[in-house]
């Protein structure tokens, strides 16, 4: 019945407007695009469909004045994706904020984990 | 295509274990239970079904050593729900952490809102 959570710890989402939020899914995807140079490959490493990966990138590219990712061989190609300077900035700032939030949340997270009933895996 | 977000700003979720996370939905519900003294009424003010409200409370009550809410007239009753001391503590600490996170995130949130394309409502 309960949903399963893959990543323990603090999850942060910035809701910027009624149709646009930046959270771990989009930011992880940006990071993987940076690492792999490919939206398809980035999605694949996250267990995400090609279509879904393009949707998330498209949502970000449409939401901001500047795109976060550009592709060198047109939208339908599988290769040649690069973060723009703005995309890099978005990634860096979100990661920094994530670290700061983890720092701020540390004692609460520890206390709540210690309050879990026996049998609940805390790590 | 894009999802709609009702609440702008920072959304925080503490993933404590593979089956238990504490986020805005559960915490808002605890706050409404405190205000209304009723799980049914608390759910109603949030536009949530009676069943869903009970599920969320049940997930928390099951996950922790101590319950977060107790009911005075048994599980099937619609009235007499109270936060336990632990439930109060959970609510208070999450709210505090939320405020601290909002403080830490303020400049990033402002900059990202300013980077939104024209036509995106930022408030």
Helix content percent band of chain A:
40-55%
- Category from helices, strands and their pairing of chain A: alpha+beta
How do the SSEs of chain A run, as a string of H and E?
Answer: EEHHHEEH
The mean pLDDT of chain A is 89
CATH-derived topology of chain A: Arc Repressor Mutant, subunit A
Strand order of the largest sheet of chain A: 1-2
Radius of gyration of chain A: 17 Å
What's the number of structural domains of chain A?
1
Q: Give the name of the CATH superfamily of chain A.
A: Winged helix-like DNA-binding domain superfamily/Winged helix DNA-binding domain
Q: Total number of β-strand segments of chain A?
A: 4
Largest interface: A-B, 52 and 52 residues
Number of helices of chain A: 4
User: Approximately what portion of the residues of chain A adopt beta-strand conformation?
Assistant: 5-15%
Residue ranges of chain A: pLDDT <50 for 5 or more in a row?
A: none
Assembly classification: homodimer
Described by strand count, sense and barrel closure, the largest sheet of chain A is: 2 strands, antiparallel
> Any idea what the shape of chain A is?
elongated
CATH architecture label of chain A: Orthogonal Bundle
């Amino acid at each position: 019945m309960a949903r399963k959570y893959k990543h323990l710890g603090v999850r942060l989402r910035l809701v910027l407007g009624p149709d646009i939020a930046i959270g771990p899914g989009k930011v992880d995807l940006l990071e993987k695009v940076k690492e792999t140079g490919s939206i398809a490959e980035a999605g694949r490493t996250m267990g995400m469909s090609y279509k879904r990966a393009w949707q998330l990138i498209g949502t970000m590219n449409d939401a901001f004045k500047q795109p976060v990712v550009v592709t060198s061989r047109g939208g339908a190609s599988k290769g040649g994706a690069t973060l723009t300077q703005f995309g890099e900035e978005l990634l860096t700032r979100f990661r920094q904020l994530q670290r700061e939030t983890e720092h701020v949340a540390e004692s609460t997270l520890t206390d709540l984990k210690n309050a879990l009933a026996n049998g609940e895996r805390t790590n």
